[in-house]
Design goal:
- Chain A: InterPro entries: Beta-prop_RSE1/DDB1/CPSF1_1st (IPR018846), Beta-prop_RSE1/DDB1/CPSF1_2nd (IPR058543), RSE1/DDB1/CFT1 (IPR050358), RSE1/DDB1/CPSF1_C (IPR004871), WD40/YVTN_repeat-like_dom_sf (IPR015943), WD40_repeat_dom_sf (IPR036322).
- The structure holds two protein chains of two kinds.
- By secondary structure, chain A is mainly beta.
- Among the domains of chain A are: 415-645, 7 Propeller (Methylamine Dehydrogenase, Chain H); 749-781 and 788-1008, YVTN repeat-like/Quinoprotein amine dehydrogenase (Methylamine Dehydrogenase, Chain H, 7 Propeller), CATH 2.130.10.10; 1050-1143, DNA polymerase, domain 1.
- Chain A has six helices and 90 strands.
- By secondary structure, chain B is mainly α.
- The chains are: A mainly beta, B mainly alpha.
- Chains A and B meet through β4, β5, β8, β9 and β12 of A and α1, α2, β1, α3 and α5 of B.
- β13 of chain A pairs parallel with β1 (48-50) of chain B.
């Protein structure tokens, strides 16, 4: 039995299709984008694209079409999944929301048939009465759409052409007429068919054309009045309507055109996109004939500019176009009627981040804070990039005011001065030797004066206090300013002109220190009265007098709460001390650290639990639970937050207390389910912050960030923040090396080859051509390539700085040599860290690479040296560090290479039991091998014999895409049909045969192709805070750019979550009427098996979005185990459990 | 060339002339709202069911051939337009359940005949 939880942490971002239509209403223009299993619906508005809904489909979307049957006032949506479930959807607006009605649904698959090699085709005829589908080779399925009948009856028709490249329904015919591009041994041809729906047959259509462009890949059906079709090929574009045949071979077109979008309703203009990211416009020039009909005279094409490599294009409105990309970021662009320099006619309005395809990734803790960051190899060709993904809370910036010097500020406080209503209207910023006052009126901010306020001193603290007064504490005095009289009414000065060193106050109490003497005051109308004074053994470094309340409103109003204890942190002995008020009698003390002094201290209550938080000068935060009666602090926990002194401020967010830790790594501390959660903020450095709830900026925060004062609101939930480092070439594999603080990255770029000879030309500046240092491998394989190719792929190793992401060094591999793998490792007893790169020499005439190299590089002091190289007989698909040796997967073999004292690689032993060993992971003496088509196997290295023996294998015919070791007995694999599975080794089995079999313990359909598994987590791993009873977080990256998490949970939790899942699958209705059970079932073209061993986190976490009533429906009758006894679960139990799972990503 | 571009790029169609007029990339960046996920808990059965096509293409073809043959025979023999043969329509759902009687064609005959040749 295996019990796991799988969930999407970052949704897919690669755009597969986009379409426009009038879906939400007849007068709305909608853009619908499909990203694998998800649809995003937008409405086009004057402000841009307004998001409407994200719709999840239980299936990979293969066909997505809007159509409008007669009599409908808006479009319907036809969807077909890759498992051939079809549905027709309609949008219905409801009170405050919407409903997606499944008008029709059903299974369109056949029991026999071969899935088409050229892809699924789905088309709808111009009258919206017939849906045409090519789901199996040699067969077309037609689904007549009759809105009135209860049943829709599809039928199959055999056509003799097996390899159909594309098909469309033609405009301008009374009976549905199909045009297809097909391929046979002679080449590609175009043919038309007339569909006879009544007799369920097809007959030859009005025209055909043989031997068209050899790479003709799609057809555009031109609407009336022009009608006819445009055939897009590799070198030519042809208009054909039976009578007329107009081909053009424009020289601008060098790469394959793969998508198009009609611009005009009359079908005269089309946007075309190619695989190099060029955007063209195609114009059909027409003549009006005597009889009023239009005929096409000529075709014209113009290059408009460069965009992200498009996968789909949609013309939206007024010259604005959406470019959906699978390989790079999608874009919103505006077309200019007059060419603008460089960018030509394309102006990018907006870009939409896409991580896909994630080829490889690594999880690193760059800031050493216990929080992982994922660095992915994303995109391909010119869209290749590294993406750095980290989890955190976002600040939505509403205003930023340039205030040079604010970096040096000593504090920020909000005040109510001009208007005594609830909201703040003034901001005090303190500097060394002076203070500045900013008045906020609406969204405007201006500097002002305040009567009675000393702005020629540094302010230590200021605040609105009781009895309609303000308090300002400077190093010289406490100044009490009356609101009504608008002047200073009282001043308290230390004796003997001593200076106040630190101070704080709350609504009615002031706590300050003069060196090592601590003073406590109470604020009365018109005066501050000193109530106590004590001498402490050392100088006071920081102090707090924050009252402990759970409800922030208790701090306001006439019956506000006062503090009954306070706390200080001291110099020299580095202790935190809790003192009783008003006597300042010490209740408890705790030593924090040996060397580093406390810099900020805070008393705060979260979820009814009292905490004492202390930060040290090195950015470490200690937190304790506090008993306010005894002052006793316990449960000491330590979290590294930043690397610099951190100051703590408390504010209210969403009705609960939240702490903001200002430092070089700003962090928000809050409580969820009685556990403290630390979440990074997406800002670089914050020196001080204060809450600011003003009229112009309600519920905001003011933050001193670099040279600006930033006003913004805080996100309620944490999310992933993505940083992009463009490479402009394809990244292949990445490895991190801590010693050199660098990433090793292998990439591939495409250079053009001069037609006259071997001269290569860089087509585009990219990471490998723009490195600080570029070196080249001496030629090793002097083989000349047969035949001429206009392009050549150049492989490189790049050394990239972990902080700046600059490319320090680019090492170019030999011609025809492709890098396939990289690792960073220490070898044998050698103390150096090396980057080891595996390559293959790739020639067109070889079915698989026959030789490659293992290269060992050392990067130190900005120098990259090739220490050793080893020629091997095959492609080095994967490398692993294995007991100080190099473990390599080379074609069919898995081999161990030893690192000799002469710094050379020497073959030790190998295992040859694979078809192609593609993936390796190792643990101890065990190696997990992922094979091209023979699932996974386990090898054991025997030191004494020097053998690598297969000890167990999975006999299923799975084509692997990634593997990972969960623990000694559990192995995770992802395969070609978008499934994951876990195999178990049965070490306790009695017979050898049983021991040699890996048993499938868990099966699940992810619905996306997983390229990489990595151990690691995106959330901060807190010391002593095990949020969930789960272990072994594994992250995975997919082709569509999603990042997921797999974790093993204990069996009780699994059972509980599993029953929630089963109930949710019933309560949450799927769009398109697809069963959750069948969607997640493990399905390949060999078998379909029910999913087991995994809980679908994506469904589970939908629970949190349900209303209370539905939550109760899910909870009803569920049992929960508590302290060994079972009881009925409440809604809150479920929320708690689901929230905890939610927090792992 | 440039003039051509003017012609080819002019007069972009407009659904609503106001669309994208207030587009501000700066504010758009900050106000980029998260798209909400559609969740339905409403019980709704699809109004229409897409049925499975259980008919075999081969059988349908054979019946069509047979019908045609009957039709032709009738025409040939009786030579009246009013033939009964085509009247017993072949609903696809019925076909598989029908008793399969051996048609007079040989199998080779069937596969070599294609739709395009037929017409």
């Amino acid at each position: 039995m295996s019990s796991n939880y799988i969930v999407t942490a970052h949704k897919p971002t690669a755009v597969k299709q986009c379409i426009t239509g009038n879906f939400t209403s007849g007068s709305d223009l909608n853009l619908l984008i499909s990203k694998n299993t998800r649809l995003e619906l937008f409405t086009v508005t004057p402000e841009g694209l307004r998001p409407v809904k994200e719709i999840n489909i239980y299936g990979r979307i293969a066909v997505l079409k809007f159509f409008r049957p007669e009599g409908e006032d808006r479009d319907l949506l036809f969807i077909l999944t890759e498992r051939y479930h079809g549905c027709i959807l309609q949008y219905k607006a409801t009170d405050g929301g919407c409903e997606i009605i499944t008008k029709a649904s059903g299974d369109l698959s056949d029991t026999v048939g071969r899935p088409p090699e050229t892809g699924i085709i789905g088309i709808i005829d111009p009258t919206s009465k017939l849906i045409g589908l090519r789901l199996y080779e040699g067969v077309f399925k037609f689904l007549p759409y009759d809105p009135t009948s209860e049943e829709l009856r599809p039928f199959n028709i055999r056509i003799e052409e097996l390899s159909v490249i594309d098909a469309k329904f033609l405009h301008g015919y009374t009976t549905p007429t199909l045009v297809i591009i097909y391929q046979n041994s002679q080449g590609r041809h175009v043919k038309t068919y007339i569909v006879d729906v009544r007799d369920k047959e097809v007959v030859a259509g009005p025209w055909k054309q043989e031997n068209i462009d050899a790479e003709a890949n799609f057809i555009i059906n031109v609407p009336k009045p022009l009608a006819g079709s445009i055939i897009i090929g590799q070198e030519s574009i042809t208009y054909h309507n039976g009578d007329k045949y107009i081909p053009i071979a424009p020289p601008q077109i060098k790469d394959t055109i793969n998508c198009y979008a009609p611009v005009d309703k009359d079908g005269s203009r089309y946007l075309l996109g190619d695989l190099a990211g060029h955007l063209f416009i195609l114009l059909l020039e027409s003549d009006e004939m005597m009889d009023g009909t239009n005929t096409v005279r000529d075709l014209k094409i113009e290059l408009l500019g460069e965009v992200s490599i498009p996968e789909a294009i949609s013309y939206l409105d007024n010259g604005v176009v959406y470019i959906g990309s699978r390989l790079g970021d999608s874009q919103l662009i505006r077309l200019h009627t007059t060419p603008v320099e460089v960018q030509l006619c394309v102006f990018v309005l907006d870009t939409y981040t896409n991580l896909g395809p994630i080829i490889d990734m690594c999880v690193v803790d760059l800031d050493r804070q216990g929080q992982g960051q994922v660095v992915t190899c994303s995109g391909a060709f010119k869209e290749g990039s590294l993406r750095i993904i980290r989890n955190g809370i976002g600040i939505q910036e509403h205003a930023s005011i340039d205030l040079p010097g604010i970096k040096e500020n000593k504090g920020l406080w909000p005040l109510r001065v001009f208007d005594t209503s609830r909201s703040y209207d003034t901001l005090v910023i303190s500097f060394v030797g002076h203070s500045r006052i900013l008045q906020l009126s609406g969204e405007e901010v201006e500097e002002t004066d305040l009567p009675g306020f000393d702005d020629e001193s540094q302010t230590f603290y200021c605040s609105n206090v009781c009895h309609n007064q303000l308090v300002q504490i400077t190093e010289k005095s406490i100044r009490l300013i009356s609101h009504t009289e608008r002047r200073q009414v009282h001043e308290w000065k230390p004796k003997n002109d001593r200076h106040i060193s630190v101070a704080t106050c709350n609504k009615s109490q002031v706590l300050l220190a003069i060196g090592s003497s601590l003073h406590y005051f109470e604020i009365q109308p018109g005066e501050v009265i000193e109530r106590a004074c004590v001498d402490l053994p050392h100088e006071v470094a920081c102090l707090t007098i924050e009252p402990l309340v759970s409800d922030p409103s208790e701090l306001e109003g006439p019956d506000f709460v006062t503090a009954s204890i306070c706390a200080v942190g001291l110099w020299n002995d580095n202790t935190a001390r809790v003192l009783k008020l008003p006597t300042l009698e010490e209740m408890h003390q705790q030593k924090l650290a040996d060397e580093i002094i406390p810099r900020s201290i805070l008393l705060v209550q979260f979820d009814g639990i009292n905490y004492l938080l202390v930060t040290l000068g090195d950015g470490t935060l200690f937190y304790f639970t506090l008993n306010p009666e005894t002052g006793y602090i316990s449960d000491r926990k330590k979290v590294p937050l930043g690397t610099q002194p951190t100051s703590l401020s408390v504010f209210t967010s969403g009705g609960s207390r939240t702490v903001f830790a200002c430092s070089d790594r700003p962090t928000v501390v809050y409580s969820s389910n009685k556990k403290l959660v630390f979440s990074n903020v997406n800002l670089k450095e914050v020196s001080h912050m204060c809450p600011l709830d003003s009229d112009g900026y309600p519920d905001s925060l003011a933050l001193a960030n670099d040279n600006t004062l930033l006003i913004g609101t805080i996100d309620e939930i944490q999310k992933l923040h993505i940083r992009t480092v463009p490479l402009y070439e394809s990244p292949r594999r990445i490895a991190y090396q801590e010693e050199s603080q660098c990433f090793g990255l292998v990439t591939l770029r495409t250079d053009s080859v001069d037609a006259t000879g071997d001269k290569m030309k860089i087509t585009r500046p990219s990471a490998s051509t723009q490195a600080s240092v570029c070196t080249k491998s001496p030629p090793v394989d002097g083989r000349s390539v047969e035949g001429f190719s206009a392009t050549a792929d150049i492989g490189s190793l790049l050394i990239i700085d972990q902080h700046t992401f600059e490319v320090h060094h680019a090492y170019q591999l030999d011609t025809n040599e492709e890098p396939l793998s990289i690792m960073s490792c220490k070898l044998g007893s050698d103390p150096n860290s090396y980057f080891v790169v595996g390559t293959a020499f790739v020639y067109m005439e070889e079915t698989e690479p026959k030789h490659g190299r293992i290269l060992v590089f050392h990067y130190i002091d900005n120098k990259l040296t090739l220490v050793a190289e080893k020629e091997v007989k095959g492609a080095v698909f994967c490398l692993c560090q294995f007991n100080g040796h190099v473990l390599a997967a080379i074609n069919t073999s898995v081999s161990i290479y030893q690192w000799t004292t002469e710094k050379e690689l020497r073959a030790e032993c190998s295992n040859q039991s694979n078809i192609l060993a593609l993936y390796l992971k190792c643990k101890g003496d065990f190696v997990l091998v992922g094979d091209l088509m023979r699932s996974m196997s386990i090898l054991n290295y025997k030191h004494v014999e020097g053998n690598l023996d297969e000890i167990a294998k999975d006999y299923s015919p799975n084509w692997m895409t990634a593997v990972e070791i969960l623990d000694d007995d559990n192995f995770l694999g992802a395969e070609n049909f978008y499934n994951v599975f876990i195999c178990q080794k049965d070490s306790g089995a009695t017979t050898d045969e049983e021991r040699s079999k890996l048993r499938e313990a868990a099966l699940f359909h992810v619905g996306d192709s997983i390229n990489t598994f990595r151990h690691g987590s995106l959330v901060m791993q807190n010391v002593g805070e095990t949020a969930v009873s789960s272990k072994g977080h594994i992250l995975f990256g997919t082709v569509h750019g999603s990042i997921g998490v797999i974790t093993t949970v204990d069996e009780d939790l699994y059972a509980f979550l599993h029953s929630i899942q089963n109930r949710l699958a019933k309560v949450i209705k799927s769009v398109g009427n697809i069963d959750h059970e069948s969607w997640r079932s493990f399905c390949t073209n060999e078998k379909t098996e029910a999913h087991r061993g995994f809980v679908d986190g994506d469904l589970i976490e939908c629970f949190l979005d349900l209303n209370r009533e539905k939550m109760a429906e899910v909870a009803k009758g569920l049992m929960v185990k508590e302290h060994g006894t079972k009881r009925e679960a409440t809604v809150d139990d479920l929320i708690k459990a689901v929230e905890e799972m939610n927090r792992i990503h | 060339m440039e003039e051509d571009k003017g012609e080819i790029l002019g007069n972009f169609p407009s659904f609503n002339a106001m669309n994208f007029t207030k587009f501000d990339p700066q504010s758009n960046d900050k106000k980029k709202k998260k798209i909400s996920v559609y969740l339905s808990t409403e019980e709704s059965k699809p109004q229409q069911v897409i049925k499975k096509d259980r008919s075999s293409i081969l059988l349908r073809y054979l019946y069509q051939q047979l019908d045609k043959k009957k039709h032709e025979n009738l025409k040939h023999k009786i030579n009246t337009g009013d033939s009964q043969a085509s009247a017993d329509g072949n609903s696809p759902d019925d076909e598989p359940r029908r008793k399969i009687f051996k048609p007079s064609h040989s199998k080779d005959d069937v596969t070599s005949t294609s739709f395009s040749e037929k017409t």
